[in-house]
Amino acid sequence: xxxxxxxxxxxxxxxxxxxxxxxxxxxxxxxxxxxxxxxxxxxxxxxxxxxxxxxxxxxxxxxxxxxxxxxxxxxxxxxxxxxxxxxxxxxxxxxxxxxxxxxxxxxxxxxxxxxxxxxxxxxxxxxxxxxxxxxxxxxxxxxxxxxxxxxxxxxxxxxxxxxxxxxxxxxxxxxxxxxxxxxxxxxxxxxxxxxxxxxxxxxxxxxxxxxxxxxxxxxxxxxxxxxx
Length: 228
Fold this sequence. Notes:
- The chain is of the alpha/beta class.
- It has two domains: 6-122, 3-Layer(aba) Sandwich (Rossmann fold); 125-225, Arc Repressor Mutant, subunit A (Orthogonal Bundle), CATH 1.10.10.10.
- It is built from eight helices and twelve strands.
- It has helices at residues 14-25, 37-47, 63-70, 87-95, 108-122, 156-166, 175-182, 192-205; strands spanning 6-10, 30-34, 51-54, 78-82, 100-103, 130-133, 136-139, 144-147, 150-151, 172-174, 215-218, 222-225.
- The strands form three sheets. It has a five-stranded parallel beta sheet with strand order 2-1-3-4-5, with helices on both faces. A four-stranded antiparallel beta sheet has the order 6-7-8-9, with helices on one face.
- The mean pLDDT is 89.
């Protein structure tokens, strides 16, 4: 039975679950709660929520293992909410299918914004023939890009990189994934190319390349495409 607007919270901390329940229900979401990985998997199957918020520190299993099991069948957004702040933990979660990663303590406004972005993306934004982000317009069919209604001249690599990021708005894409998608596995250990092309793209599509709001750096992890 699919519940529209429902979110499943998998977290063993009662205080966090209460806080999330207040934040989410006050913003119109139906909330289901699980205190363990096993219960979370069962509720995900039963209710098929539109989004899952998953803690990594569960009493009966590592949250990363639960993430992997969910991704065997669950295609909707999963946001990690954890006290773990190491780059390895964040990269591992994103690399295994998480749409986003927030650390505790968190700001409610930021969590709600990340939820909205993840849901919009899951509803098929990547399938649209034209992607629009403010004054930036990407015509996928004609392979053209405009900024303020003016054509933006991109190389084939710049266009491929832009399209990859724009098709995943709000989602953090790790360096290795981007490099593999754009240049292939032989270039995984050569991140310099990615930094150069991101810098070039910023000069062409950002209002102010020094303060980007489209090609956003997630320090030490990767890049996120701003959705507004």
